[in-house]
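Input for the complex:
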Amino acid sequence: MSDYLTGDPIADTKAPAGPLENRWDERKFAAKLVNPANRRRHRVIVVGTGLAGGSAGATLAEQGYHVVQFCFQDSPRRAHSVAAQGGINAAKNYRNDGDSVYRLFHDTVKGGDFRARESNVYRLAQVSAQIIDQAVAQGVPFAREYGGLLDTRSFGGVQVQRTFYARGQTGQQLLIGAYQALSRQIDAGNVELHARTEMLDLVVAGGRARGIVARDLVTGEITTHLADAVVLATGGYGNVFYLSTNAKGSNATAIWRAHKRGAHFANPCFTQIHPTCIPRSGEHQSKLTLMSESLRNDGRIWVPKRAGDPRPPGEIPEDERDYYLERLYPSFGNLVPRDIASRAAKNICDAGLGVGPGGLGVHLDFADAIARLGRPAIEARYGNLFDMYQRITAEDPYTVPMRIYPAIHYTMGGLWVDYDLQSTIPGLFVIGEANFSDHGANRLGASALMQGLADGYFVLPATVNDYLGSTPLDDVPPSVVRDVETEVRDRITRLLAVPGTRSVDAFHRELGLLMWDHCGMSRTREGLRKALDRVPELRAEFWRDVRIPGGGEEFNQELEKANRVADFLELAELMLVDALAREESCGGHFREEHQTPEGEALRDDENFAHVAAWEYGTPPVLHREELVFEHVHPTRRSYT
Amino acid sequence: MNLTVRIWRQAGPAAEGRMVAYPVEGVSPDMSFLELLDVLNQRLIEAGDEPVAFDHDCREGICGSCGVVINGQAHGPERTTSCQLHLRSFADGDVVDVEPWRAKGFPVIRDLVVDRSALDRIVQAGGYVSAPTGSAPDAHATPVPKPDADLAFDNATCIGCGACVAACPNGSATLFTAAKVTHLSLLPQGGPERASRVLDMVEAMDAEGFGGCTNTGECVASCPKGIPFSSITTLNREFLAATRTR
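Predicted:
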């Protein structure tokens, strides 16, 4: 049997034709509106309270909709956007350094290795400036210059300084801004918040998304919430790898269940490996910690030229160090995009030149920057990151170079959406990292915060209006609700009934290692095939041998994890099928069979300039969306 | 290294709790405190016992989910979150007591997990700037002096973990509330709602059953983000000024 079937092509029908710079205005003008007095009669469910979900919930409620919002954490302020460190891009051109909406658009399409839609990316660049205005108005304390104006810095893959930041806690500060806006609407009665509540299925009636089935994580109660539209803002699926920089609770359950109900899943194999994470310290490792990409502004990456050089790094003279990024990519140096920096680190370590335990690390050295700018300047820029590094490794990065190694960080793939951010299920909208829309095969640094907030504050509210204003809805038949609820309950009952011996984490670790080895930084047909044989076996073992203590009608963290891991075990297979089908290298997807003689990614625009949108099925069905580049001509990405 | 952890076990909000001792052998000094609990839980599950429930998420010290009292101190002996505390802070053979946050405002849900939603309700009462999406002027329309912006930032770094409440002999949420009031009152954007914000937030704080502040400063000593004691002074000053003008 073939791994997949090929279905009809798919297309985005919502983006207007015509000049790129007018498309978003035209779409907003063509969009139906809902009379302000009628809006409160519409219920909109928003799942997730990160930058995308928090900003969407707050904005929809401000517009007058009745928002019902969910998060699995105990408070909306804890969504994993909170951990984003470095910054947020915006085409403000406050530096007068040649930045513009067009340049941000261009950089993002190129950075994504020409696998993103031009219309979407251009809109993202257009609204980016408004995001900064909005955040400042909310009281987000961005870094400022002595004149009182906002400071900016550079990030990987670009040559302008367009990244706004709040020390190393930009995600936290932006999230608190959105959380406070949401809190204001909760207090006003416009948002009904369900914290510690996890979506376990989507209710589809009459072909439209009409609600969700959710589990109260404290009591275990299963309830259905109905609405006129459902918005998923549930983040990425990086935890399929077990070890990642995601939060422990980050999961793919909401998008995976929606996929099984009919939402196509796009480009699942596009995962991002972040080059600068703290290397793992042992078997007990439960997650990996990122060191912001912004550190590459002032830190220099190197390894000793001699493998296994026993001297402390400070005693290795300059001419015996290999600053390999500066050597290989002289014009971008340490600020090459993430995929390129990660692969370079892997190649160096594979060649036996890595440092630290197991040789899985490279130095990120601040000695030059400290000598040039002084320690206080470095403290002001990165103090909290240095503290965090020291706490985790017990090494002082002010005097000893950091050790870093790549780790799974972000997933560019996600549910397929059109220009309106609507999935293939009418009424189901997907925003932020949960969708696939803007980053192609590789996301540039400081663009995740930009996209999450662009979607939530500015894009979704306009397009949800159009849907609600133009769609007559009937009541949801009780039988539909009953059926979905029954499926959810049955699954929990089945999980709890497995008379197994192995913990959920044991299965998750095994899956993660398998995916890291065969679907991580570098992929081969043989390896993917091997993993594709193993994942279904592992899934069968899980359902035969998992042990979940406790019951369903109580606070049960093992059950929560089991629910999520059961979905990861299904999603992993689709990732492998997608990675196998994409016979090219692009961005985060590096197939060893497809590389240049210098070892760089070799794209195949002739056959693969498309989005792979997968329909659920056994086997899955591939629908291709051809990508058309009218403005940015695909070239081989060069950062040399 | 080998440790013995004595952990508060409580099956549910109404159940009676007790300390239970568990020896955990062969752990590494490089493990985080939560990874110690992970190891213990894996062993409990394998032995057919109920694992210890505890809140955690990012494990990078920024989400504010985790938080337990370790040997009587909120987040333990180092000034950081429980997830960023490492076993190298303990000695081989130590007996370590682990309890949930204990405060009237934080009822226990199970074992080490407590309900901190009261903190959200304090923010909902006024811890925001009313700036609906789309209404914002250009970000550079109002310069903010760097010292104000920096101090606002220091206060905005609060992660809402609740350690201040757990550490306070009165179970007071004053430092938490003070951080938000200080953050927003320092910025020009927060100016128009300055008076109503402090009054509404303090009222909400009192209504949630948190105790009053008696300036003992335990909150500051346990705060993983270093929110300064002076913020409480700011809160009091803002409250007094708002009360007078009302």
